[in-house]
Each structure stands twice: as structure tokens, then as C-alpha cells.
């Protein structure tokens, strides 16, 4: 229950939405940059919103941590009684219908530790304004439905040679007093959250892009000088994203310059500010020597994501923050398609579903569960969630499935035309999709307002005489906070039927004249629906939810023989993988349940054989094979249980790998040798990525049962690797064991890579993730390491975030792991509330732990509840208890 007292922060409700009383024609900003006293002068042309005509409205401006120096209307300074300072900002009760407001404020970037508003990262100025950071820069209606033209003048001294803001550079020059300036003008109206400013000592990698219509766009990636050779991959990814959006959606970039700035201190991945993206350097820098394949893919997808926001987010933005998924769900869907087109589509889909299951499903089953379009929040920063982003992308994907690709793309284009330059809602988007798809999506819209992961159950019945196959499908959705009862969802169920040789049968439902393809999409919209397939010659194996066509959980237990059959034959690669995962889940959970002293761990012959067969398969793509061979994550296994013991979950998964490795050593060695580095230079082609993935999977598993020979194999790869993917894989596998060389290896890696913050992050996080008894003690020691910097979110996540994922180290039976995290969260909360609230995520799952740990974790939440908390952390703690 939420405890309400007079000090508790207020809840904001969607149903309280009111349009802004005043709109902004234009804002001119002037920044006089100084580390601890930056002067911000603004000149804002306001006019009364036409929907309020004839009414007397006060002007309300947001402002936070600002020092107000002067305020004037139409050139007249306001007297003390003419404006009111409020908790939220500044109110001017009486204003004309149209006026120019001039405000001067002073801010203190060097002491801004929240990484929101204007702050310094490694001595360079940068901004982060989403969601509500602009109010830490100046007084303004800081809400996304107020769109304005921005003109920005920045002045700084010579230590900051690079001065950037949104749009076009219109003027720059030197001033007498060792200072210089630049003036930027953004021709596109935008909300304040898309404003950006950078002033620093940066170098720039430049390239060009020719748009389909023949315009030249200047592309610039700004980084600190030490990073200048690490930007090529980001640049190529940007060019690929620009081409892709033209080819797939017909969308061209709209300015003559696109800038990206990389900073080390950033709360999230990156930010889509108009014409001037600011990125966490983790998603810009990449070089074969320092970045792994998954780092490369991360850069590609985040570069794509922010670029795609230029249309889905910037040209059309959100009316209010409840509509966040309007831009984020759609843009994640677009970046997923982009990566799928550039790499292996099947592997990309599997990865996306893994992420959904790892982060979104638990969120949807816990105390922070909320719909894709939430209806209330305390702190909006807490709603940049897997639900809004990843489930939001699934909701878009379902519409694409229901409409078909062409109509879907036509719908997106129509939406962008209709709402260009405006702030829209999720309802607006769906209405356009209904129009473009000539279909009724009113039931479908429940996906936006109902939280919780629907469960699907099915029953089958084959009639050999009538040659019919009946499928009865039911859905239900568990209660979630504030939502005890749910209405049925419209669920697109992609289904196929396999004959006895594994081929897809043509599908014809009762009443249909002719059979269609091997996969068809059923539209389940009742609690229970029955489908009767005709002319089915033999009992088929049913392949349901192909491509994971809806974000649901299948609860029906399928026969192991059928799963093994699907694993080999299903024409849908996702369902081949899924069949393997289901087999593995049932094997591992059976062992978990039967776990008792003196009882042996055992895997069934069907499962052992299926796994061996996959390992021996030389005809399947190696990336995909690696996915097939990887057991479900500890988190996913734990989520299948009503309550779980973390150490036993870990133990069962480990034991399964050891059993599989013990029985397949020779084959693992063979496949390792076949796939190991052929000596060519580093290439990012899917074939090369697959080669490294399988080789490193085999090496990792072989080292589950170390021997001198296998350790030597690992050491050779560690020392001789020609890229970080191979080096880090060997390093990880080795430091997860207790071998004598372990400490030496840790020192060696640190000595070699200490100048690279992103690799120091990995060094911290791999130690925190090591499944070893000693890890808890080592994490405590690493907190005192000179390179552990609590002000840097990447570093904090690499140590504390990783630690909290470690089933052995974090979940100490006496609760000391929880205590350590709680202490650190409370310290961090003073400086960076966004970060502390995110780190508290693992505490939201306390109710699913076994009783002893449950009490221990709850105790830490209660301690937090009694402390002085930021609004961010307050919401997480109070909703959890
Ligand atoms: N809009 C950003 C994205 O998804 C997210 C983001 C970046 C953000 N920085 C933030 C959200 C800070 C909240 C706070 O690409
Ligand atoms: Zn985004």
C-alpha cells in the first residue's frame, strides 16, 4: 500500500490532462558559460492558447534549482508582487494575451550531479532535458505539448572551442575577452525536452550522406581527443540507418547537419535531441581491439534508434508523458527491424524476446506493473521502462502483423503526415492505423491500458476419420496493481501445423474455400475460441505463436517428443528455438523440484539427445545454433516458479551445463576448433559473428569442467586473440573458475586496458558477475578501488548493477547482499535519483523469494522507506511494499 502523508510526492494522472494555457511562438536563449555560474537569458514569445480564448489565465512556468535574476514582460521588469515562486516554478497571475517574457537565471553546472539539465562530463558542458530537465536550465512551460522555434547563442572561453546546439549554425566569432560564441537556429518547432547544448574540447569525425532526393547532409561525431579512432562504426551505422529509413519508410533526414556527441557520464543510452544527439559513449565508441560483437550491435541499434526518433518522436512528438510509448515503442520497433535487416533476423528476434522475458515479464508481474500507456505516475523518470519500450514495441509489431507490412507502413506514413509538427497521443496513432488498415482496432487498444502478461492455454484434438484438427485456445490475464479484472485482448496468434515429416501443412479453416500458406494468423479475441482445420491427413504437431507473434506466456505443457520434433523441423526459426527452451525449462524445473540431499541431478535422454544433435548440426547458422544451445537464464527459470531459492536456481542451471559438457566434451572441442578464428581481420558480417559466438560458447562450456588442457586452450585464446570478442570471452570463462592464474589474469587485463573506461567497466562487472563463493567479498573490496566512481552511472551499474544480478553473491542467505545494495542506493540517491531508483529494481521482486530471503529483502525496503528519499526512489520503495 502507498503510504500518503503531507510530505509524500503527488501522483500525476492522465485524466487530469489539460492543454497548455499559453503557447510559445519562439524562444531565444543566450548562454554565458561558466562552470559554477552559467547565466541563462531567455526571450520567449507567448500567446494565449486559442482554446482558452476570452478567459483570464495565469502563466505557469516550471523551474527547479534556478536562481532568478530578472523577469520582465514586454520590456517592463516585474515588481515583487507581480509574480509568485511556487514549489514547481514561477507563476505570473496576470499577463496579456500575447507578450514577450524575458527571464535571467543563474545555474551551477559543476555541482549538478543529477546528470539532468546542464552539467559537466569530464570537463565538458552538455545537457539532458528529457523528460523534465529543461526546467533546471530556465523557467519555461516544460511539457512536450508546447512546441517552439529555438534560437540559441552560446558564449564560452577558449577552453571550450566547440559550441553546439540544435539546428543550423548561423553565426560564430571571437570576442575580445578570450571568449567566443556561436549562434544556432533550429527551423523545426520542438518541445523543450529536445533542446541540447554542448560546449567542450572535442574532436570530430566528419562524413557525408546524400539523401535520396540528392541533398548533402554533413555528419559529425564529436568525442574527446583520446577517442578519435573509435567512431568509424558509429558513423557507418548512422549512414546505414539513414539509408534504411529512406528505403523502408520513405523518410529522409530534414536538416543539413546531423551531430552526435559522446559523453562518459549519462543516465541512459542516448538522447535524440533534434540535430544534436547526445550519447553515452558506450553506444558510440567501437574498435575491434576494445569492443565485442555485442558492443558493435549495441552501437548499431542505438545509433539507429536515435536517428529513427527524428521522425517518430521529433517531427511528431508526444502530447504528454503518459504517451511516451507513442515514440518509444514505435522507435524500438523500428530499430529492431533495422537490426534484423542488417543481421540475422531470426537471431535478432530471439534476442528481443529474451530481453522482453528477462526484464518486461518480471516487471509486469511485480509491484511496478503498469500499462504501455500508464494512467498515473509519481516520477516520470521511473516510466522509461521495459514495458513502455519493449512491450510497447511488441504492441506496434502486433499491429504490423494484423495489418500486413504494406498497410502498416502506409499507416505510419499517414500518421507522420497528419501529425507532422504536432504532439500526438497513442489513440491518435491507433486511429490512423485503423484508417490505413481498414480495420477496427477498438478491442486491440486494451493492450495500451491493461497491464500484465496474458496467459495462453490450448487444447488439441485430431479426428482421423473426419481429417479435422481442432484447436481450442483460451486466454486469461493475472491481476496487476489497480487492475483486478481484465477484458480479453486481441491476440494475433501465428500458427502452423507440421506433418509427420516436419513439413508445414496447407491450412484451411472450416467454411473456407481454399487452403492458404503454412503459417496463418488467428485473431484470438474471446476468452476461449475454437478453430477447426480441414483436410489434415495425420495427427499434426502444432506450432503456435510463431515468431512470438504476441507478448504472452504459453502455459500449456507440450509433450517432450513433440518439442524435440519441433526443435528439428519447425520451419519457423523462432519456434525451433522456443521448443528447445521449453524442453530445457521442464528439465531444469523438474530437477529443481526434485532437488534433495542424496538425489542426483539427471537429464532425460530426449533432452540430452536434442542438445547433442543441435551441437553436431553443421548445416545451421552458428549464431542461431548458439542460441539453441544456450539454456534459459536464471531469471527466466525463477520466473516460472511462485517462489524461488536463487542459489538453487543457479545450482540447477550449472549442473545442467556440466552434465551436457561431460557427455559432449569431444564434440565441443571439435566445434571449437572448427569455428575458432581463421586469422582474417575482424569482420562484423553475420557469418563471422556466428563463428565467434559458437567458438566462445564451446570454450565457455568446456571450462565449466576445467582441466590443464582446457585452461591452456583458454589462456592461449586470451593472450593471442586479435579482437576483444575473443579475448573477453576467454577472460570471462577463465575468471569464472578457481584456477591459479586467476589473479594474474585480472591484473593483466586491468594493466592493459585501464585507459579505456568501457573496458574498466567490463573488468568490474565480470568480477561482480562471477558465480563464485568469494564474489561478495570481492565486490565489497572493489567498492574501494580507485576506479570505482559513484558519480559515473556506467561504473556504478558495472559493479552494483551486475552484483545485483548475481544469484549467488547478491542473495546471501543472511541478507548481507541486500544490505550492501541498500546502503549504496541511499548514498547515491542524494546525488543522482534516476540512477538510485534504477538500481533499486531488484528490490521490487522481493515477494517471489523463498521466505527467509523475502523477509531479509523486505527489511531493507522498510529501512529505505523510513529514510529521506528522492521522488524517484520513493515511488519504487513505496509501491514495492
Ligand atoms: N529518449 C531517450 C531514448 O530512448 C531516453 C533517454 C535518454 C532518457 N536520456 C534520458 C530518458 C534521461 C529519461 C531520462 O532514446
Ligand atoms: Zn527512444
Report on the architecture of this protein.
With 881 residues, the protein is an alpha+beta fold. The chain is 39% helix and 20% strand. Strands 6-5-9-3-2-12-15-14 form an 8-stranded mixed β-sheet, with no helix packed on it. A 5-stranded mixed β-sheet has the order 17-18-19-21-20, with helices on one face. Strand 14 (168-174) and strand 15 form a beta hairpin. Helix 9 (560-569) packs parallel to helix 11, helix 17 packs antiparallel against helix 18 and helix 20 (757-769) packs antiparallel against helix 21 (775-782). Bound molecules: tryptophan and zinc ion (ZN). Tryptophan (TRP) binds at residues 128, 130-131, 267-268, 270-272, 305-306, 328, 381, 384.
What is the tally of helical segments? Answer: 26
The helix/strand class is alpha+beta
Q: Give, in spatial order, the strands making up the sheet with the most strands.
A: 6-5-9-3-2-12-15-14
The portion of residues forming beta strands comes to 15-25%
| Main beta-sheet strand count, sense and barrel state | 8 strands, mixed
Oligomer status: single chain
Distance between the termini: 6 Å
Q: Which ligands accompany this protein?
A: tryptophan, zinc ion
- Number of E-type strands: 31
Backbone shape: globular
